[in-house]
Specification:
alpha/beta, eight-stranded mixed sheet, six-stranded parallel sheet, 19 strands
Length: 223
């Protein structure tokens, strides 16, 4: 078994697997895949780009969203027009912090993370899905914990560790991440959440691109 795994993980096999996957996904979804990016059981809405060495597992990537190099994302539903920076980590899994005598998965998981398990059933939820809204920017080296929801228009500062839900159009940062400020006024946020510009078609985006640099101009035209 170890011999088979070593063959599958040798540089030539990895390159061939990446090339086949890249060709298939780019034709099916209009997606650009960087060098050695690895996709497992994930879907795309189209016009996406994943840079080099990205790992995207069991996730969905919304239209026009991109993921920068070396990011690892698992079990995340990511909205449209999202910008995910380099070295971002999402869905790394979790361990019990109370009640359980040990944090080691051998006592509560059947997955055999270290080749053996002492449990005959799964006693703890190790992976909780993450939900990322639309137009979200997640800075370089940020970590998003399992089960977190990040609202539309939010910004996660570089290096932040997000352990709690983030409201729409909030900017958060730090370890653990804390509220810094809102991007817009309450009235502007309400307008954007109701207007949902990210759901407009491509023609609308071309026609209104000049308004996207000024919230007041956008509101004036469409309020």
């Amino acid at each position: 078994m170890r011999f088979i795994v070593s063959i599958l993980k040798n540089p030539v096999s990895l390159w061939l697997y990446w090339l086949v996957q890249k060709t298939y996904l780019e034709l099916k979804y209009n997606v650009q895949l960087g060098y050695l990016t690895n996709i497992r059981k994930s879907t795309f809405e189209g016009d996406n780009k994943l840079y080099d060495n990205v790992r995207l597992w069991y996730s969905c990537l919304g239209e026009y969203s991109y993921i920068a190099k070396n990011s690892q994302i698992s079990r995340a539903n990511i909205g449209k027009f999202c910008a995910i920076g380099p070295n971002v980590q999402m869905g790394l899994g979790t361990h019990p912090t109370s009640t359980f005598v040990s944090i080691h998965p051998a006592f509560y998981s059947t997955l055999k993370q270290t080749t053996v398990t002492f449990s005959d059933k799964n006693l703890f939820v190790e992976h909780d899905p993450i939900v990322i809204g639309n137009d979200v920017w997640i800075g370089a080296n940020a970590i998003v914990a399992d089960g977190v929801s990040i609202g539309d228009g939010a910004i996660i500062a570089a290096g932040a560790v997000v352990t709690k839900n983030v409201e729409p159009y909030q900017i958060v940062g730090g370890v653990p991440a804390k509220f810094i400020r809102n991007r817009f006024t309450e009235a502007q946020i309400k307008f954007l959440l109701n207007f949902k510009w990210w759901d407009k078609n491509k023609d609308w985006h071309f026609e209104n691109a000049s308004l996207m640099s000024d919230i007041e101009k956008l509101m004036t035209k469409y309020s």
